[in-house]
Amino acid sequence: MSNFTNSTTLAPSATPSLTPVPLCPSWAVCLGYIGVACAVCFSNFGSAWGTWKSGVSLCHTGVRHPKSIMKNVIPIVMAGVIGIYGLIVGVILGQGVTKPTSVRDNTYSVYTGMAHLASGLCCGLSGLVAGGCIGIVGDYGVRSVGYRASAITLFPATAAEAEGYTQVADGEEAAEGEGEQISGSDDQNKLFVGMLIMLIFSEALALYGLIMALIVSQHVYTCDD
After folding, report:
1. Digit-coded pLDDT (tens) for 70-79
2. What's the CA dihedral at 166, 170, 172, 177 to 10 degrees?
3. Which residue blocks in 27-169 are alpha helix, DSSP H?
4. Which residues neighbour 220 within 8 Å (Cβ) at sequence distance 6 or greater?
């Protein structure tokens, strides 16, 4: 009985060749320009949102109390500054996007593109939420100051339900003989200071995004290195 041997040998599995991924592909510039668009558009969106909300309330308040218009214009100014943050970051990122060489070699890397995209999102989204916060705080804050200055009663008239609120009608006239009673002018100042503090911390949100965007935008790698 003859022994049959299998003469066929299994070929070793061929190792698949790994094609190296280029560090500077042609589509890398899309990441950078998307970062530029995010920084500018989102920041302007937040700036317009805050200006709209605060501006409408300022106009409504100015009908009853015109003297408070210039004092309560601060939320609109702070909302407009957010758009400047996006403009600054957009200009920096736009200048960082390099064009191909004369022999059509791309020098803008994916690493740089992702850094610029993250930078634009940091500034843009921070400006968006900061603008919305400024608009809402400015809306209610300006209306509250205007209501207090116009002697509009928003609370129940009964003494039991209105306990804890000042009963002074107007800020310009303090009741004589009531030294412990808080005047309407003091109420307006306290409301304005509280609104201003909230606006400052709301603006700080956009400033945090601007700082991080400037730091991240410095992370650059070119294929010439």
Report:
1. 888 999 999 9
2. -50
3. 28-64, 74-96, 110-149
4. 96, 111, 112, 115
- For 200, residues 6+ apart whose C-beta sits below 8 A from its C-beta are none
Give the span between the Cα atoms of 128 and 2, in whole angstroms: 85
Is residue 87 within 8 A of residue 129, CB to CB? The reply is no
Query: Closest by alpha carbon to 182, among 148, 138, 141?
Result: 148
Question: Model-level pTM greater than 0.85?
Answer: no
Residue type, 182: I
- Indicate the Cα dihedral angle 145, 148, 152, 156, nearest 10°: 110
The reported pLDDT for the residue numbered 20 is 56
Per the listing, tokens 């299998």 go with 6
End-to-end CA, the chain: 72
